[in-house]
Amino acid sequence: MTHYAVHAALTTPFGDDGWVDLDALHLHLGLLMDDGVHGVMAAGTTGEGALLEESEVATVVASAVQAAEGRIEVIAHVGRASTPATTRLARAAAGSGADAIMAITPWFFRHDHEALLAHYRAVLASVEGTPVLAYNFPNRTGNDLLPELVDTLAGEGLAGLKDSTGSPERHAEYLDVAQGHDGFRLFVGSERLVRQSLEGKGAGSISALANVHAPLLLQLAEEGSDVAQAAVDRAQAQTPDIPSLKRAVAERLVEFGATYPVASRVALGG
């Protein structure tokens, strides 16, 4: 079986003062590395990245790189609503030593095919030498990366994609695109599509659930069995949103005598 990576879509801890708690972030990353994850995506959707100030995104990424100590991959999510803000953060993340850059499609305003091409071309040009991955979550952003657009960008140097559409049909199309480009890494964001991703020779999973149940995701990636999938489904039902994930992280860290704050900027969850 080819190597199938399990990355955690890292939560962002906030202290009593409302700012990022870097000590808690480091403790959580240590736990994840002990769990055996292959990497983390910092400041993404589960990390409440859209609600972080640019300086906070840069700090979270730099701190994750420091805590990882080269043991696991750190993918820096830098996507913002505008291209200039995205490229600023991309350069900062690359400068701090992130292993790869990921950018969700711009949000709020609708963008056509050509505008999205221009956006990602600008991100690619801003960090030559650091792999850039796109991130598609149209239910959140209102913009959709069609397979033909991803195919074009892959031919121009795009290194990969995280698919959070939740659509088996779309994921199959992305898998076809990935097969046409050597080294292109297709990650899946939906835990229920891990087996499809695995069977289609996807690169791996970037999972919110991996914050607390990485061993279950690793087992699913290894076995691809109904039993492993059922265990993941049960765990996901218990932690369906960001606040519940943070509470679960806190409960795990208590076992090690550590504290993890459960405050969230997404008050009603993910």
Please characterize this protein's 3D structure:
It is a single chain. Strand 3, helix 3 and strand 4 (100-104) form a beta-alpha-beta unit. The two termini are 33 Å apart. Helix 3 packs parallel to helix 4 (113-126) and helix 6 runs parallel beside helix 7 (168-179). The model has no long low-confidence stretch (mean pLDDT 95). With 270 residues, this protein is of the alpha/beta class. It has one domain: Alpha-Beta Barrel (TIM Barrel), CATH 3.20.20.70. It contains eleven helices and eight strands. Helix content is 47%, strand content 13%.
Which CATH class?
Alpha Beta
Instruction: Spell the H/E element sequence.
Output: EHEHEHEHEHHEHEHEHHH
Q: Fill in the CATH topology.
A: TIM Barrel
Strand order of the largest sheet: 1-2-3-4-5-6-7-8
By CATH, the architecture is named Alpha-Beta Barrel
The structural domain count equals 1
Question: Ends: how far apart?
Answer: 33 Å
Low-confidence blocks of residues: none
Number of strands: 8
State the secondary-structure class.
Answer: alpha/beta
Strand content: 5-15%
> What average pLDDT do the residues reach?
95
Biggest sheet record: 8 strands, parallel, barrel
Shape: globular
What integer value in Å does the Rg equal?
Answer: 17 Å
Number of helices: 11
Instruction: Work out the helicity level.
Output: 40-55%
Fourth CATH level, the homologous superfamily: Aldolase class I
